[in-house]
Amino acid sequence: MQLTSVHHPQLREIRKAANSGRPMPDGTIVAEGPHLLEEARRSSWTVEQIFHTNAAAERFPELLREGEVLATQVAERAFASIASTETTQGILALVRPRSWTWADITSGPRALVVVLDGIQDPGNVGTILRSAEAFGAAGAILAEGSARVSNGKLLRAAAGSLFRVPFLEGVTRREIRSGLKTAGLKMYALAGRGKLMLADCDFRYPCALVAGNEGAGVSEDFVREAEPVRIPTAGVESLNAAVACSIALFEAARRRGTG
Questions:
Q1: Which regions of 79-226 does DSSP assign to beta strands (E)?
Q2: Which tens digit of pLDDT belongs to each residue from 185-197?
Q3: Same-domain pairing of 84 and 111
């Protein structure tokens, strides 16, 4: 069967989810492109359905193995209506995220957790998740108000790391503070005016790095209970949230002998 109408109910739902950066009604996430589909297949996420053009089937036959996952062919024009990228490669999948727990993220003698405190730019969130994997973080917690992991730009910026890094999203700040305390993790808040220099942080023990919103910075909820940490700069007052968090994660990995 081939879907040819841009008004097909399922294609309308996909288009709505992709445009809003939110999950599908059944909780699956729209992942566009062969790279994300391949990464999802290798992960503990579940690929539930694939949509593709005829040209994509000829170009990526290994990604459309018959019988493993329901694959639906879509006419070029109809597919273009659901694609969120300007140059589509003709493959889109509906993937179901793995469910993670607090224990998955905070357990371990030297757990390193990244807390995204209302970071709204999906590109920044995706970059931070990629750095979290690169520098050995145990997982990430996305506080309420942060970009959703279902956002297509976030998925592309994470470049596959989202499928491997344990995460919790939409968590209240109170729940985060309580969960980190219960797990015995010290909190460091990245702040431009922090008294403690990044190089002086003791990353040998379980800890959490809190990165704040692009405009407002780390919220008072965390500032009151975390150790404010400053990354020294020359000529600029502050760093992009993703850049600052990546630098801090690299320093933590270096101090732990893993970077």
A1: 91-96, 112-117, 139-143, 167-171, 186-190, 196-197, 207-212
A2: 999 999 867 788 9
A3: no
What sign has the CA pseudo-torsion 73, 77, 81, 86? Answer: positive
Q: Is 109 exposed, middle or buried (0-12, 13-18, 19+ CB in 10 A)?
A: exposed
Partners of 38 in the β-ladder: none
DSSP 163: G
Rounded CA-CA distance 91/147 in Å is 24
Tell me the residue type at 22. R
Does 55 lie in the same domain as 114?
no
pTM above 0.70, yes or no: yes
Query: pLDDT-based confidence at 224, cuts 50/70/90?
Result: confident
Domain that holds residue 242: 102-256
Task: Output the domain CATH number for residue 32.
Answer: 3.30.1330.30
